[in-house]
Write the structure tokens for this entry.
Amino acid sequence: LLHDRVVGVVEDRMGSDGTGGDLYRVQIGAGHTATLSSLAFEGGTKRNKPSLKPGQILYARVAALHTHLELELSCQLGPHDIGQNLTLRDWMTDDGCYVTLQGGTVVRVPHDWTRRDLLPHAMQHVLWQELAAAQNRNAALAGEVAIGSNGYIWIHSGNPSATVLLYNIIRNAPVLTEAQVRAMIRQMTAHYKEREERDDRMH
């Protein structure tokens, strides 16, 4: 849908976008590909623009829908982002809402529950609040997550087992109540900590 936030993977450079930028083809799942101009980044200019490589992961917004043509993506804030306490960040800072995602793992999940996870806001708040608290209790759980409405989830963690844990927590959350999400995260992270401590004793 228009203005959906998606996780995508750069496939290749298609050439010039006709206005001084480079045009890239991006895979966003379900057989769909999209295009993204290197000028469609905050602060992007003909002389100052990102150079994307095949396999690079992006968090972007669907900026335009074209009948019988590829979708058009943007890494600039859109009209639906207004009022969400998002500030403009130059693409070079890697600190904006829509950015190139460094490292990490992309997993694909059923499209319907990623859309549920993006809504409602209250459930997102509970999920991220509890994950942040768990990460404060156990630094080994530190990581970053980006959820696309296209069924792609990006998880970045230096610990493979923590990546799996974060993935399972996020995947289970959309079908639970707020109280169940809190209980699930606390239980799963407690078991993770116990397993860590047991492994440390064995070594």
About this structure: The chain is about 30% helix and 30% strand. The mean pLDDT is 84. The first strand starts at residue 5 and ends at 16.
